[in-house]
Amino acid sequence: MGIKLGCKEDLSGKVAIVTGANTGIGLQTAKMLADAGAHVVLACRSAERARPAMKLVTEGPKASAEVIPLDLSDVESVKSFAAAFLKKHKTLDILVNNAGLNTTGAYKGPTTTKQGYEICMGTNYFGHFALTALLMPALRASPDARVVALSSVTTWFASNKYQNYVKGASKTKGNYAASKLACLAATIECQRRMDSKFPDNKVKFVAADPGFVASDVWRNYNVVFRTVAGALALDTAEGALCSVGCAAKVDIKPGALYMPFKGVKMSTLFGLNKRLAYDLGMPFLTRLFHGFASDKPAPKSKSKEATEKLWELSVEFCRDNDVGVDSVLLSV
């Protein structure tokens, strides 16, 4: 029996945003949420390139969607997107911070954002942090808001010296992993701060690891790797199930990490041997134990000292770029 796709929950009346929704996991996430009844905003860099995605997402009988341009590597675009969304929508129920840039492999693109920040940290983390801060009024207006951050098993190998990945091009190949660790650590910290200051808040921050997926994130790798990965990996629709679960399931634990495994804890395998867990565990156990369950995050994501530094850098980023200095998220 194959992996069952789709979202079983009824999301009618809910409003969702999916960043990077024109391709890969983001596209499939947007389609499943729309098929379940949510009105989905496709947040994509190019409205032109989002048209085929819009057509696919709105095929279902209950599907409703719109496109608002968003370039996470440009803070001005982030602010414009938030302003455009808040002008049309007072409530935001689901924010899936899906878009991600991986500069490993044969990547030939820019090494810094438009404002000069390291490209992976600036796009994958700072851009999403600023977006979430700006959208907090709409998120807090929801009776059950979800902020879903895409995590990665690379967090087990990542550096949490976040200050090394702020301005200028990265001097190491660890920029992608560091950005994903930042997304995970911030998810945990955002929930802790919100719950501490607003015990009755209805916002759930949660991290979703899609697992071993043959997605566009591998597009810069050679054909041999992509062929082998494709044979073992989940396809993008299967890889979207963890994000969809975090966005839609009723019994989600706030501040938790979810992975597409049931009956096995990847954190246990990584705790025993990170390299074997990554090289063998993720590819070969992906289909055998496919499911949906919370798991322990990489230990570095819970470092008090490193997370305090990350929060300081995040607030500084927002203030330097005139992003929601009065936001609830920045004040907690």
TrEMBL record:
InterPro entries: NAD(P)-bd_dom_sf, SDR_fam. Transmembrane segments: none annotated. GO terms for molecular function: oxidoreductase activity. Keywords: Oxidoreductase. Gene3D superfamilies: NAD(P)-binding Rossmann-like Domain (3.40.50.720). Pfam families: adh_short. Belongs to the short-chain dehydrogenases/reductases (SDR) family. This is Uncharacterized protein. It comes from Micromonas commoda (strain RCC299 / NOUM17 / CCMP2709) (Picoplanktonic green alga).
